[in-house]
Amino acid sequence: MFKHFLLFFLMLLNLSATPATAATTPSFSDYNQPPIVHQGGVNQNGRLQVIGTQLCNADGQPVVLRGMSSHGLQWYGQFTSAQAMANTAEYGANVFRLAMYTAEGGYLSQPGLKETVKNGVNAAIQNDMYVIIDWHILSDGNPMTHLEEAKAFFKEMAQLYKDTPNVIYEICNEPNNVSWAGEVRPYAEAVTAAIRAEDEQALILIGSPTWSQDVHLAAANPLPEHNLMYTCHFYAGTHGEWLRQRVDEALQAGLPIFFSEWGVSRADGGGGVFLDEAEKWLQFMNQRGLSWCGWSLCDKNESSAALNPGVSPNEPWTEQQLSEAGRFIFSHFKD
Ligand code: IDC
């Protein structure tokens, strides 16, 4: 605790000093000046890399990715069509997340979902978007339970996509009821090694215990590796200031953070919507040059869903077809 206060104090001193000069490696002290945002897609930015805590493009310039996450591919895979992605790209999205649930009728009982993932990657390529392949553990909270399946899956994906700069790997959506040191970190080491054996440079996103909110645990004991980012997830109706503080402390400690999932609803996907709190979060991420994906691109009748029930994934959308969540999230892609 004392260490955090000390770091915070040092940071304040730094912020009040002259602005950071020609920093090639953005750091926490640059946050009083939002990094230059290079929206743009894969053609413009190329292979991503992590410098300090900042996501950067192939030239080492800061880049921010913003876009949508799919809902579970086993239920709403149709919203990963090229047209659905084009509809979000039109509002400024440059990333799409493919949430491949493992349980609840997902990949472990339906391996054919791999084809939905591949089609989704192709749709993202057509739209010049980055694309996150997400091993969406949720009710199956311990990632170690299916370590072998995860290693085989990511090895295959990395073999396929090692020359495709669009692809980002998210290896465990939301671990829960597990520890960082005992389960999540060893899992991340093993799966990262499996990906790295095929693709040295791939950008890999790693979750943390308590539904990817325990970034402080990852910050205290990160993996000694390059091009890794750690995910943090929030829902505006449930998570507030305390989690923003935790993220700031983790960034300060040098942990690169990616908000691969957030919603305007409560954490159960319903309720609200909580747009005032969501606005605070967006400002927070914006000021720190952090990338994000909104939950979720589907027409389910729940407040986190971006589309009204019955909207087609194969046609352009009018503003009226977006739900309140969708209108709000889409309007922030270009912030
Ligand atoms: C929710 C869906 C909901 C579904 C439920 C269980 O919105 O329709 O019934 O999962 O499968 C997460 C998860 C994400 C959740 C979302 C909202 O990553 O899968 O989706 N959420 O509850 N973490 C925090 C919230």
Structure description:
It is built from 12 helices and 10 strands. 49% of the residues are buried. Helix 6 runs parallel beside helix 7. The two termini are 34 Å apart. It has 335 residues and is α/β, with parallel strands linked by helices. An 8-stranded parallel barrel has the order 3-4-5-6-7-8-9-10, surrounded by 5 helices. A two-stranded antiparallel sheet has the order 1-2. 36% of the residues lie in helices and 16% in strands. It is globular, with a radius of gyration of 19 Å. Residues 72, 104, 138, 173-174, 211, 233, 235, 261, 267-269, 295, 300, 302, 304 line the site of ligand IDC.
Oligomer: single chain
Overall pLDDT level: 91
Strand numbers in spatial order across the main sheet: 3-4-5-6-7-8-9-10
Task: Compute the number of helices.
Answer: 12
- Terminal residue distance: 34 Å
For the largest beta-sheet, the strand count, sense and barrel status come to: 8 strands, parallel, barrel
Please state roughly what percent of the residues sit in beta strands, choosing from under 5%, 5-15%, 15-25%, 25-35%, 35-45% or over 45%.
15-25%
Helices and strands: which structural class?
alpha/beta
Task: Write the H/E string, N to C.
Answer: HHEEEHHEHEHEHEHHEHEHEH
Helix content: 25-40%
The small molecules bound here are: ligand IDC
Q: Low-confidence runs (pLDDT<50, min 5 residues)?
A: 1-33
Based on CA atoms alone, the radius of gyration comes out at 19 Å
Note the overall shape. globular
Number of strands: 10
